[in-house]
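Hi there,

I know you've been waiting on this one. I reran it after we fixed the sequence typo, so this is the corrected version. Both the input and the resulting structure follow.
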Amino acid sequence: MAQMQDHTDTQPLQTLLQDNAASSSIGHAPVYPSNATSDRQPSGCEESTLGLPSAVVQFVLLAIILYAARKQYPQLELTVLVACGAMFVLLLVWKNWAARRCRGTNLPEEKHTAQRQRRQQTQQEANQPRTPNMTGVWMKDKATSDSMEPTLDMMKINRLIRSAVRLVKGTQLKQSENSFEITVLSGILWFKIREEYPLTGEVRRFKRRDLRKGLHRGTAELLPDGAVCVTLEWDEPLGGIGTDVFYVPAPKLLYVDSTIVMHGQTVKYRTIYHKQS
């Protein structure tokens, strides 16, 4: 049997739709800021950073040179040698500071291009609906789906209808830009459910899913994340409100989160389907 979703109280139809859509929606992917980095290096950037071992080696070499100069030319004043060493150290410090200052902007142009492409791809994926078009045949995974027995008990479904529900194989969905069609696939010829709703929120009437006399009133809404929420309302006997949220959390995997509210009681369950190849 096609899914009918649960809710937490007997609130009006519009409030139930809003709450169920908020709780069942799989959410939006985050949009990452671009923070694009310029490909052009700032003036004065060094091609490489002088590492600590290299600095130590150069300092030692300078000390050896100054020591040799002092030995070779004893007339050189010590202050001159110290000044030369200090100038070298200052030059070394400035070189490392300049290299650290432009680190991150001295990447090759190819790397910058790859980074921009990854950011653009991430933004494009973030702007796409999480749930794609759900058109196709989906077979029920009875082992992983929640049991419908609590729902059948609350709706006081007789044994014949319960048997038909247990024999449901899956569902066929047809989704277009403006409509959403649900067909229950069953091995029993007389157990047929087919409903088509405009995605504009207009009300459509079909036979009650519990096969009692009368019609239910249904609407369908396309949620921002690409999921589709179908909301039903039916009168006495055993009147109530139900919602089904259809969405695809992973390729070839369909979740239908259902909620039914009747006479102050609420039942929720999830039915899982796999797309037929």
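Quick highlight: Confidence is low (pLDDT under 50) at residues 1-18, 20-44, 46-50.

Best,
R. S.
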